[in-house]
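Suppose a colleague, Dr. K., hands you the sequence of a protein chain of 243 amino acids and asks what its three-dimensional shape might be. Before reaching for any lab equipment, you can write down a predicted structure in token form. Begin with the sequence itself:
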Amino acid sequence: MLGDEQTKELLKLAQAGDPSAKESILQHNLNLVRSVVHRFTNRGYEWDDLFQIGCIGMIKAIERFDTSYSVKFSTYAVPMIIGEIRRFMRDDNPVKVSRPLKELAYRVHRVQEKLQGDLGRDPTINEVAGELALSPQEIVAALEAVQPVASLYDETFHDDGDPIHLLDQIGRDDCQDSSYFDRLALKEVLARLPPRERLVVHLRFFEDKTQSEIAGLIGLSQVQVSRIEKQALRFIREHLQTS
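The predicted structure, expressed as tokens, is then:
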């Protein structure tokens, strides 16, 4: 890290238009950017993307810092970096969340960080609610509102090169597949399936069971159920194409 006086001299040069001075300040403060970015991990964003956004916040801090301030540059830069990352997350979220809910979620995150420092562990929802004088339900609603959107094709488990997607763990309530099978009169094709494949197809598409539920019912792992389902559907498709 640069000394305070050296930093101020470089800041004056950078604000006067010296790109090498700006680059020097940025390079000497990359660890500060990393430490701030670390607070925002596990929120559905790539670390490299957040780091780039954090560097933008640092550059804005370099451009706007008043060298007559009695505070350290790093003290001024940290909230600038945090603000830039939070703006990126807010604007990137395709789900529109009301401003009061966003502000509450921000307050919740601040209290979580404070309590984590005080307690030496992650605080519970009840502890955060008590600190903010709110109900646990309000805390959960605020946190859920700012969670990143998950794709149905996100992998939730991967084993043996056979991934399980979020879609595989959701029950099918619209019965589209059942009506599809009924409409095409597939009883003959289904009857040709081996007993285990036929059972998985029946539970999956006619009783709206998830792969996880089926695994529990027939004593297999979810990966095995997923593999059986894919084999059965491939068998059905091939026989339909040749019939």
